[in-house]
Amino acid sequence: MSSEADRLLIQQIRQGDSRAWETLIARYEGRLLAFVERRLRDRSTSEDVVQETFIGFLNSLPHFDDKRELQTYLFTIASHKITDHLRRSGRHPLHTASEGAGDVLQQQFDHHPAASSMARSHERRQLEEEAITKCLGVMIRQWQERGDYLRLKVLELLLVKGWANRDVAAFLKISEQQVANFRFAAVKKLCEHIRAAGLPPEVFPELQA
Amino acid sequence: MLKITREQLHGYLEDALSEAETSRVEQALRESEALRRLLRSTMQERDHGDHSIGAVWCRHRLSCPSREQLGSYLLKVLEPAQQDYIEFHLRSVACSFCLANLADLSALHKEPAPRAQERRRRFFESSAGYLHVGRSGKK
Lengths: 209, 139
Fold this sequence. Notes:
Number of domains of chain B: 2
Order of helices and strands of chain A: HHHHHHHHH
CATH topology of the largest domain in chain A: Rna Polymerase Sigma Factor, Chain: A
Number of helices of chain B: 9
Shape of chain A: globular
Oligomer: heterodimer
Largest sheet of chain B: none
Strand content of chain A: under 5%
Strand content of chain B: under 5%
Low-confidence stretches of chain A: 93-118
CATH class of the largest domain in chain A: Mainly Alpha
Distance between the termini of chain A: 31 Å
Largest interface: A-B, 80 and 74 residues
């Protein structure tokens, strides 16, 4: 969620306040530039992409949901602009990869949702994502407040990186049983929450394992 | 070396991987038909509306430290356990958003102020003409 300061800034920008727009640029350009530069490795091109990101933000502002975190939204726009740039300049791997790899990488940027995806509405998927975000967010905050960083590390490696129990155990120097216990407890809680929200856990493949 | 996982492919599709990880995924995709199949199936899952909990975790930055905490991390003034966790999040999870914030914070005192101001002025001048779009929704 956007901070109160960001919400106020957005409100002012929506009213056409150029000072507020200047403030937003000053607040976010540095991190956006670092984000883009890590991928493009060229300062001048990265500045162009950040410039396009800001223009893209203003163009999409009428549709921006204030409940979204502004920083995350800006990073998302920057990601799209990076992809656009790589494709335009022929630097994306699909231009240099073997044909087989090229095909699949090409699909990443040219594919459109299959017909089956139309069956579950955008709103429905948003509801599911909100439910899991809420539950996971509460769990993570509780671990952080309790200083239970080991559990947080285990779950982050399992769910974000997709590592196997044994790899997580070896990396963190704990037993596989402990990793399995942490996974079991977290999955159980997430499943309960999803069911309580009247949503199907089947749409979260990790909860089926 | 650990194999590329479905979760990493979700991160790749959302451009949420670190630079090193992105290179590793792209290299592996060029070399492995099995991985290309997994990428296709991951894309189909996304089309079908299946979620990846890891992708949701990253997208909403559920465990990311705040910018203030990253600043404290740089100054090494956090509690050891928190300092250690942020180190893990940056180095082992390699969160691209936090790495960008960290790079920005590290550069803040190194870059000459006039250069940053000049850049900001350019960003402003090139985009301010679009302010009316944000206001009215019309170009």
